[in-house]
Amino acid sequence: MQTYLLTGYPGFLASRLLEELMERHEGDHYALLVHPSQFEKAKKLTVNKRNVELFPGDITKKGLNLTFEQAEWLRENTAYVFHLAAVYDLAVPKQIAEAVNVTGTDNVNRFVQSLTNLKRYIYFSTAYVSGQRTGLIKEDELDAGQTFKNHYESTKFAAERLVAELTGVTYTIIRPGVVVGHSLTGETIKFDGPYFIMRFLDRIRYMPIPYLGKSEALFNVVPADYIINATLCLSESEEAVNRAFHLTDPSPYESRELYRMICEELLGKKPSWTISPAFVEFALSFSAIRRLFKVEKEALEYFRCTSQYDASQAKEVLEKRGVRCPDFKDYVANLVQYYKNHRMDSEKLINVK
């Protein structure tokens, strides 16, 4: 029996990752580092799960705020660490982002370095550590002197650099694109990212629907099940040792086309005119407009991102094992149907200020 340590539970990807790990490695042990604010929720979700143990902890604290006994047990038994805990909010204040994403990762790194039987450290970064770079972004690139669109990007960049600088640790860095729900069920935990499109369209469903500009920028969406399957594949592959991988769509759609597909699926009609992105951005500068349409201003940047994420190394490793990213057009209906069924669920709505 070996132990898998996960941070970020009961977050969406961490929860799905745990389920898949337990299905594939039924006899192993699972240690979940859970922030005290999420402990009761995590306890309810795992009450009937065998071989799962919760560890109340805090990645922003030295030693992860574990007791001496807990830390010693984990040091001796942990074989795999999946570090998913982070602040993913695009509008997150700098101080909070640095505390969780940078200091938190540094603390996890230090703990990982103390593990005596570690086989692999899997760190969840983001494709958007590329910041405001344009053109082709390769998987073996990180620091190109780029600037960033928000504190989320800049702190994830700083955190990934800390992981890449580790010595004596076998790691794999995962860089997802914009993660949406399960490609078959549509299930997701939060309506953010592309779901802002659905929330916006819901508000104007009885009006002539506009395109948001004429940009030909690509919008890189990937379903959660692909991220989980690819991550588990890479975590056990010798080809993935001490490397970073873009878990992005190898054939992404233009933002305008993706918007059209969502609009047709949700409202049964196509956009018929085009509104200036500058006007939309100006309008979303006002909190009343953001709250009305339930859309964060920061999300607009990702619909006009002109970066192209080369995922050839990930594709090469994953296709040998039968793992492929599905085409957005083949699962957009499932995403939209799930949204329709749960759009009034307050727990899934992002609090837009």
From TrEMBL:
Domain called Thioester reductase (TE): residue spans: 6-231
Matches recorded under SUPFAM superfamilies: NAD(P)-binding Rossmann-fold domains
Recorded superkingdom: Bacteria
PANTHER family: BIFUNCTIONAL POLYMYXIN RESISTANCE PROTEIN ARNA, SHORT CHAIN DEHYDROGENASE_REDUCTASE FAMILY 42E, MEMBER 2
Name of the protein: SDR family oxidoreductase
